[in-house]
Design a protein that fits this description.
- The protein is α+β, with helices and mostly antiparallel strands and 693 residues long.
- It has ten helices and 33 strands.
- A hairpin with a 2-residue loop joins β12 and β13.
- The longest helix is centred in the last third of the chain and has 22 residues.
- It is globular.
């Protein structure tokens, strides 16, 4: 009865301030919560809501809005905002509207809609409903344990369970130290690639959330997971140059671990929770014999176990899982778009430069892997090697991958191997690696393949396009296309420098130069939000920002504090604010940025940055590095103290602007004054009377 009265009261109130149906002017659409559409795990206790207005009228503008947030779909449909009813608020704001309702707890679901008033005071219809779900906000919400198995880089884990009642709703929270692929009743869960993605696993580990309601069944069920070393236990780039005795792998831990928590609401009102715990079983005699982000994947299909991820499978020879140690790092819901297969390409040609070696051409550089369709005798091993260019004889060129000629570990082999089980046509697709390539060499087949034997799977963090460019000049169009493909090829949880050789690090210098272009091309808000946290996690104790993030080699000891690289720790969050109006990222990042500027000040007597400049890359890849006929060998490089001091001034000025935006007026004045003083010192030290630097 109380609910009916509340709904009636709400309906009366709506007649006074709600839009009438069929009105014209503006129409809200594309509702988002924390940049995402209907997110399943929001970690922010006061999430921000955004929408887009469309209109058939020119020069329309929002003059007011009203947001309703309800605890159920029924209440929202009835117009009852029992969690929050903003009322009619005069405002043109349509992004980052902070939720102002009742406190939100772990797992809570919120359903919302909104309406807007246009420039002539006409109200829109209600938007289509949207929703968000809160994540696991407290460490105590996690009851699952980390589990794994020793002896193989890609163990398989499984557990069976039974449900006595039909399923009303089921949510999975999953993560890994390493990489994982989750299976439920014989099907893959989600479309995330290389989850949970790269962070500093000592400080922060991302988890993913999946709605698996439709994947469960009354009666017997089975859940399974395949693990990979990934960035956690596997190789990461440039480890070969870090220092004597530095290992090539295992910078965060020696082997992967898995975390799983499935919370089920049954139709009879009861609840079940299925956890990763000692009751799971594991097999290390798995078909993925090895997996490496840089070297590739080795798969023996003769070890396939059909039905291993279904109930009824005989796992009597599987062993109990190991239970891992307690994790000190914070578990956080993934804020950025997942890495996904975003498109598939067919090769445009195939050659045979040497007998039995078939080279496929995909027409352009891509990043991902190949799906192989093959038929042959059991035990036949097919090898796929990936490269960006060909040599003069038409063979793939791999010297740039820096693989040692003596067979020692190192470089990036970019090689996948598949051993056939025999019989019918087989399909192989790697799980826990990726390659940068245009050409693929296929060897090991006893017969000539067809063009249909390979499909190129393109993967990257699945940000949406923000703009396109086209003009009458084909060369300019091709240049723009190349720029976008390059961006796609270097967005795999972090903005990398290259996707093929043994680097693939999130270099800050590369990202700060390209960051504005990146935002023009794609919606980078969620991507840079995640990566800004990576930058903070990698900040040295004395305030130095890292040269790259995540930083697996101890930022206090090395690869930190280089001018223009470390300054990206100020520049990237500012770019997010400038492009997306995101004040919260400035609030979260300000103290960190302040520590960096103060560190540089401490190294800059007379406000000229002459002190500790880390690796001091300077004007990297300046004109002096070009090797061309009749090209001058000198005169292009900017002196390092000039470059460093200019960036010191730039970071101080941006810090002042950040402070002004977030209402820290004293800091705004202080760092504006510092920036001005640095400019004066710069002109005095480096600028001649005729203006020459």
């Amino acid at each position: 009865m109380k609910l009916r009265r509340a709904i009636l009261a709400s309906m009366v109130a709506q007649t006074l301030i709600s839009p009438a149906s069929g009105t014209v002017g503006v129409m809200p659409t594309h509702l988002r919560c924390e940049y995402a559409v209907n997110p399943l795990a929001v970690d922010v206790v006061r999430p921000r809501l955004s929408w887009v207005l469309v209109s058939e009228e020119r020069a329309q503008a929002q003059t007011a809005y009203r947001v309703l947030v309800a605890s159920s779909e029924a209440k929202l449909a009835a117009g009852l905002g029992d969690l929050w009813d903003s009322g009619r608020l005069p405002s043109d704001k349509s992004i980052h509207v902070v939720y102002g309702g009742k406190p939100l707890r772990s797992r809570m679901r919120a359903y919302w809609k909104m309406c807007a008033w246009g420039k002539n005071g006409k109200a829109s219809a209600w938007s289509q409903p949207a929703a968000w779900q809160m994540g696991l906000l407290d460490s105590g919400d996690w009851r699952a344990k980390w589990i794994g198995a020793a002896g193989d880089s890609s163990p398989m884990l499984r557990k069976t369970f039974s449900l006595a009642s039909p399923i009303k709703r089921a949510t999975v929270y999953a993560s890994a130290l390493g990489l994982y692929e989750l299976r439920l009743n014989g099907k893959r869960v989600g479309d995330h690639i290389l989850a949970p993605e790269w962070t500093d696993y000592h400080k922060r580990v991302q988890y993913q959330t999946y709605d698996v309601t439709q994947m469960l069944q009354r009666g017997d069920n089975a859940v399974g997971a395949i693990l990979g070393d990934g960035w956690y236990a596997g190789r990461v780039g440039i480890s070969h140059i870090v220092g004597p005795g530095t290992p090539l792998r295992g910078f965060y831990g020696p082997r992967p671990w898995f975390l799983f928590q499935m919370e089920i609401e049954l139709a009879d009102g009861s609840q079940r929770v299925i956890l990763s715990d000692p009751t799971w079983k594991a097999s290390t005699d798995a078909p993925i014999r090895s997996s490496c982000m840089l070297d590739g994947e080795v798969y023996d299909a003769r070890k396939d176990m059909p039905g291993w991820d279904k109930s009824g499978f005989d796992d009597s020879d599987w062993k109990p899982v190991d239970v891992g140690p307690r994790l000190d790092a914070r578990l956080v819901s993934q804020p950025n778009e997942p890495i996904r297969i975003v498109r598939e390409l067919k090769p445009i040609g195939m050659t045979e430069p040497t007998p039995g070696s078939f080279v496929f051409d995909f027409g352009q550089n891509i990043v991902g892997w190949c799906r192989l369709n093959v038929r042959g005798v059991a035990g036949t091993t097919v090898t796929l090697r990936h490269a960006e260019v060909l040599d003069a004889d038409g063979n793939i060129y791999t010297d740039n991958l820096r693989v040692p000629k003596d067979g020692k570990p190192g470089g990036a082999r970019q090689t996948d191997k598949y051993t056939l089980r025999g019989g019918a046509e087989e399909v192989f697709e790697p799980r826990f690696t990726y390659h940068g390539f245009r050409y693929v060499e296929l060897q090991g087949l006893p017969h000539k393949p067809s063009l249909d034997s390979l499909v190129g799977c393109v993967i990257h963090s699945a940000t949406s396009r923000a703009s396109t460019f086209e003009c009458s000049d084909p060369m300019h169009n091709k240049l723009m296309e190349n720029i976008v493909w390059t961006q796609r090829g270097n967005m795999h949880s972090t903005p990398t420098d290259c996707p093929q050789r043994d680097e693939r690090m999130g270099w800050l210098g590369d990202a700060q130069i390209f960051s504005q272009t990146a935002c023009f091309n794609m919606d980078m808000a969620r991507f840079f939000t995640k990566w800004s946290q990576d930058i903070r996690d990698a900040q040295a104790d004395d305030g130095r920002y890292p040269d790259f993030a995540p930083h697996p080699f101890d930022p206090n000891a090395r690869f930190s504090g280089a001018p223009a690289w470390a300054d990206a720790g100020v520049i990237i969050p500012w770019r997010v604010y400038v492009n997306y109006g995101d004040v919260r990222i400035l609030e979260e990042h300000f103290e960190s940025a302040k520590r960096w500027v103060e560190f540089v000040r401490s190294q800059s007597p007379e406000l000229i940055w002459t002190g500790n400049r880390g690796n001091d890359y300077g004007d990297w890849l300046n004109g002096n590095t070009l090797i061309l006929n009749d090209w001058p060998r000198s005169g292009a490089e900017i002196p390092k103290e000039v470059l460093a001091t200019a960036f010191f001034a730039h970071s101080a000025e941006l810090l002042s602007r950040m402070a002004a935006v977030i209402g820290r007026d004293d800091d705004a004045r202080r760092y504006a004054s510092l920036a001005g003083s640095i400019k004066t010192a710069f002109n005095r030290a480096f600028v001649k009377p005729d203006g020459r630097v």
